[in-house]
Every structure is written in structure tokens, then in C-alpha cells.
Amino acid sequence: MTPGSALFIVSAVLCLAGAVTTVVSRSPVRAAMGLLGTILGIALLFLKLRAEFLSAIQLIVYAGAVVVLFVFVIMLLGTDAGSEPESEARSKIAPPLAGGMFLAFATALFGLLGGAIKTPTAFTVPSPDHGTIEAVGTEMFQNTLVPFELTTALLIVAVVGAIAVGRGRQGQKPNQRVIKNPQDFYVGPVMERDNVSQPEPKESV
Amino acid sequence: MLPGSVVEHYLALSGAIFTLGAMGFLMRRNVLIQLMSIELMLNAVNLLLVSYNRVHAGNMTGQVFAFFVIAVAAAEAAVGLAIVLSYFRIRGTVQSDEADSLRH
């Protein structure tokens, strides 16, 4: 067992545990943490696969931006959003489709690990700059410059679209909250001495 | 054959993550978790792209493609979560089965 194999096993277990947590957990916060585990495991695997630039991008974009975005939205919706038990599925084809996918994957996995492939594709010795920023950047700016520039257009359109959809309808008045009892804004434990909303009627002398 | 020394191990792991993501997308009805399942599937595809790129030494196309996939996934997450937020404001729920306003 080399260190590389140990890294692969640890990362694979992290990825699978995170993916299972994401899919089965009832609370969205727990699901987001599972997604974070999967992302970290895949970033480790990128390091093992000599893709150091993509590993850094994976950490910055996914762990740093996408998961934080999910957590922010969960915060805006309230942590209980979606924690309630899910209703019976209306779709008739989704469960058989999921079962079929699982069966197809299990068959493929048994074929893959059970010796259907006689000559496994081993990794070759890569060039020393495989996966560095220089190598990826050279490829990106020489052969895929137009898709790269179009990606910037995609991102700016996505940002504008997200703002336009997310900020809601303008021009309507926000809900005016009528303050009747200041204690309504307090959510902590209420002690006896805090009970000032209904002062005891004084005995009239 | 050590773990992680051939492409087929990464293929199996990537297939497992993709299948979990697809099953989560199909079986769950919380829109947030469905979006996270989409991210799982995109991550699985990225892993496969990078591992097959490792076979072809001296060629960076797979990693550049994975970079584009990451960019598209970030844009999709931003727009999708904005739609979820807007939907929650209108209907007060995040269950995808409740989104039937366009039903005739």
C-alpha cells in the first residue's frame, strides 16, 4: 500500500459518505455538509491525478462559493425549510427510473471490477508540467480561447439573472409591522422579572 | 493492482457518485437537495474528465473541459438558488411537487 493508494481510499470513502449524506439526510444543512465532504474528496483526488490547478479551483469555486451560497439560501429560507417529511411522490416514473439507474450501475460495477476489462488502463508517466497553471492556461488561451471568453459572458448573464430573479418584485410596499408589544421581538427565555408587558394593576388606595 | 492506479477505479467511483446524485434528484422533492444532487453529478463528471486526461500525458483538453464544467456549475447554482428563493417567497415551500402553478 503506497501513500497514493491510501490517499485514493480515504478520498473515495469521503466522497461516497458525503454523497450518501447529501441524498438521504432530511435537514438541508446536513445535506450541504455532505456535499462539502464530496467536494473536498474530489479535490484530493484531483491532487492525486496531477491536476493541481483544478484542485485549487475546485476548493475556491465549490467549497468557497457554491456551498456557501447553498448555506446562505438555507439561512434565508430558515433552517426548517424542507425539513418536514416529504409528501408522497406524485410522479409515477421517478422511483422506477431511479431503481433502474441503480441496477444499471450495479451491473456495470460488477462487470468493471469482475474482470470484464482484461487490460486495465494504467496511467502513463505524465510530463512534468501536467496540470500546472502554465499547462492548463496555455491550452486554454491557445486552443479554447473562444469558449473561455463565452464563459465570461455566461457568468455575467448568470449574475444579472440571479439578481433579477432573486430580488423579487420592486415597487410593492414592504410589510409594515405594527409594534404592539416590544416583547414580541425577543426570542430568548423569559424570566419572571421580564414580564413587564402586563404590569400588575396597582391597588388603589 | 493498487487502488487508484488504473482509470477503472476512478470510473467506478465516478459512476457511484453520479448514480447517487441521479437517484437523489429523482427521489427527493426538496428543491435544495435536488440542486445539490445536480452538483454531485457534475462533480462525478469532472472526476472522470480529469482521470482520463491523466492517461493522455501531454494533453490538457480534459482539464480545460472540467474547468468549463465548474464555471457552468457555478452559474447554474447561482440562478437555481435565486429561483428557489423566489419560489419560496411565492408558495412558502421548497417542495418541488408543489410547483404546479402552470398546470392547466
Structure description:
The complex is a heterodimer of chains A (205) and B (104). With 205 residues, chain A is mainly alpha-helical. Chain A has helices spanning 3-24, 28-48, 52-77, 94-113, 133-142, 145-166. Among the domains of chain A are: 1-81, Four Helix Bundle (Hemerythrin (Met), subunit A); 128-165. Chain A is 59% helix and 0% strand. With 104 residues, chain B is mostly helical. Chain B has helices spanning 7-27, 31-55, 61-91. In chain B, helix 1 runs antiparallel to helix 2 (31-55) and helix 2 (31-55) runs antiparallel to helix 3 (61-91). At the A-B interface, helix 1, helix 2, helix 3, helix 4 and helix 5 of A face helix 1, helix 2 and helix 3 of B.
Please give the structural blueprint.
The complex is a heterodimer of chains A (205) and B (104).
Chain A: H1 3-24, H2 28-48, H3 52-77, H4 94-113, H5 133-142, H6 145-166
Helix pairs in contact in A: 1-2, 2-3
Chain B: H1 7-27, H2 31-55, H3 61-91
Continuous helix count of chain B: 3
Q: Could you tell me the strand content of chain B as a percent range? A: under 5%
Oligomer: heterodimer
Taking Cα atoms only, what radius of gyration of chain A do you get, to the nearest Å? Answer: 27 Å
Low-confidence stretches of chain A: none
CATH architectural type of the domain at 1-81 in chain A = Up-down Bundle
- Count of the domains of chain B: 1
Q: Which geometry of chain B do the CA atoms define?
A: elongated
Distance between the ends of chain B: 58 Å
What CATH architecture label of chain B applies? Orthogonal Bundle
What is the structural class of chain A?
A: mainly alpha
Beta-strand proportion of chain A: under 5%
So what's the overall shape of chain A? extended
- One letter per element, helices H and strands E, the order of chain A comes to HHHHHH
Helix content of chain A: 55-70%
Largest sheet of chain B at a glance? none
